[in-house]
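TASK: fixed-backbone design
INPUT:
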């Protein structure tokens, strides 16, 4: 059986890890890596016998599948080129910057029956894998994704940079339309929103309170689900799950007991890429589809719209901080 010829576009923080994971898989052969900064590509491919390119278009005709880990603004341009050429694509989140771009990518992949997977790494977090076995119907959700400030990712706001992970997980477990969105956001160290809070109300009554920040001193990545049957708390960073269940005890009294959930040992990125490779080999739909990516993007854009509405009531906030056409460059932290 011939090996799957892999290309990687973008060798920044995530791209270089994609390369490492592909190199561990015997069914794959990394044939080329592209980055506009040749030095970055060469460092990322040290010890890898593959072609190094500064123009990703040079991979066309040489690869069967490609990982794309470029800035969000280039997602549509790069992914559409490979999809049009009949190449299966693993595209890092978010899927694109607009719904029109997302729809075009989904249509291209569908027309050619290509594997098009979105890189929501938290879907493969072992704590989320374990949560699937015990989750009931959530009524209230609270999530916090707080990070220190880094220059990378500031080409988009914190909603598309960080919060979108939690939006995808919430969509996965609630599986109901969003009826109302309210949100606030503030620009602090970049010209885009750096800290945001959103409150979502879903059909069926579930409410989600979501906070994301990239200006926090310490990292915190947690989500909590509350329902009639119990409570579940996931620490994404530690890959831990606390799951409490409501049940009738002796004498009919209600008790809260801890579910004996087994959390598998797994590397989320390696699992994500392994699932992509398996989908390519089997010609089956990937576990995180283009539609999943679009759903999370649509919700992120609705949150941005809500922030804009609230800003009109607070004119002292920077008016241009939510301009989607502005190239965000983080300023030095004071």
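OUTPUT:
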């Amino acid at each position: 059986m011939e090996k799957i010829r892999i290309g990687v576009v973008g060798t920044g923080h995530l791209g270089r890890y994609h390369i490492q994971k592909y190199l561990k898989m015997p069914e794959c052969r990394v044939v080329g890596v592209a980055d506009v900064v040749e030095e970055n590509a060469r460092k990322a491919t040290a010890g890898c016998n593959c072609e190094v390119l500064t123009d990703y278009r040079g991979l066309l005709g040489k690869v069967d599948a490609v990982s794309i880990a470029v800035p969000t603004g280039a997602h549509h341009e790069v992914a559409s080129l490979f999809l049009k050429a009949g190449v299966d694509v693993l595209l890092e989140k978010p899927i694109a910057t607009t719904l029109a771009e997302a729809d075009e990518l989904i249509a291209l992949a569908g027309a050619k029956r290509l594997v098009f997977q979105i890189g929501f790494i938290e879907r493969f977090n072992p704590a989320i894998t374990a949560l699937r076995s015990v989750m009931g119907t959530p009524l209230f959700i609270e999530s916090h994704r707080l990070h220190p400030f880094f220059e990378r990712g500031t080409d988009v706001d914190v909603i598309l940079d960080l919060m979108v992970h939690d939006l995808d997980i919430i969509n996965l477990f609630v599986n109901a339309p969003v009826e109302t969105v309210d949100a606030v956001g503030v620009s602090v160290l970049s010209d885009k929103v750096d800290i945001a809070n959103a409150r979502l109300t879903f059909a069926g009554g579930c409410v989600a309170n979501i906070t994301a920040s990239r200006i926090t001193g310490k990292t915190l990545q947690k989500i909590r689900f509350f329902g009639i049957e119990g409570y579940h708390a996931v620490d994404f960073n530690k890959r831990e799950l606390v799951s409490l269940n409501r049940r009738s005890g002796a004498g009919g009294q209600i008790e809260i007991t801890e579910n004996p959930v087994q959390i598998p040992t797994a590397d989320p990125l390696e699992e994500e890429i392994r699932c992509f490779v398996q989908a390519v080999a089997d010609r089956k739909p990937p576990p995180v589809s283009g539609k999943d990516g679009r759903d999370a993007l649509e919700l992120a854009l609705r949150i941005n719209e809500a922030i804009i509405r609230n800003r009109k009531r607070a004119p002292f906030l920077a008016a241009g901080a939510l301009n989607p056409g502005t190239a965000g460059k983080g300023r030095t932290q004071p």
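COMMENT: The radius of gyration is 21 Å.
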